[in-house]
From TrEMBL:
InterPro entries per the UniProt record, alphabetical: ProX/PRXD1, YbaK/aa-tRNA-synt-asso_dom_sf, YbaK/aa-tRNA-synth-assoc-dom
Source taxonomy: Bacteria, Bacillati, Bacillota, Bacilli, Lactobacillales
Organism: Lactobacillus mulieris
The protein's name in its UniProt record: YbaK/aminoacyl-tRNA synthetase-associated domain-containing protein
UniProtKB keywords: Protein biosynthesis
Molecular function per GO: aminoacyl-tRNA deacylase activity
Family: Belongs to the PRORSD1 family.
């Protein structure tokens, strides 16, 4: 786990478990791990018109309505794309390693309303060999503490 994530969790007195596992690059593979939680995925989008980034946090199996997302962030559907590999490198991350608790990047965080009612959730902790498990309310608490532009979708 990244040190700044661990520091944040300890500072906020958040209870969590860190599960080590084989490297996982795709959500389908993570679902095979049979962890005792609801897995969340973190997807990075880029508004090509304004050159801004958005991180969407949603349930692993949730289908994303990109048109609704574009409307929410006030851009056109044609300008909102998944961040490219080059974009992710510029954000100092890569596909399969994006964590909603990694605040070294400058993007707005969008959270799916579907996660509100969940209990324990699993997220990336900045490594594809670890899953961080915590209560969804604690995840939101961390995001609110660190992010001033938190958007619910």
């Amino acid at each position: 786990m990244k040190k700044d994530i661990e520091t944040l969790l300890n500072k906020l007195k958040i209870n969590y478990r860190l599960i080590e596992h084989v490297p996982v690059w795709k959500m389908e593979d993570a679902l095979d791990l049979a962890l005792d939680c609801e897995l969340l995925k973190s997807l990075v989008f880029k508004d090509e018109k304004n050159q801004t980034f958005f991180l969407l946090v949603c349930k692993a199996e949730e289908r994303v309505n990109v048109s609704a997302l574009a409307k929410l962030v006030r851009t056109s559907r044609s300008k909102l794309k998944f961040a490219s590999e080059e974009d992710l490198i510029a954000l100092k991350t890569k596909a399969g390693l994006v964590s909603p608790l990694d605040f070294s990047n400058k993007y707005s965080i969008i959270i799916s309303e579907q996660i509100k009612s969940l209990g324990n959730v699993g997220i990336h902790a900045g490594s594809n060999t670890e899953t961080l498990i915590l209560d969804v309310e604690d995840l939101v608490k961390c995001l609110v503490k660190q992010q001033k532009n938190l958007i619910w979708m």
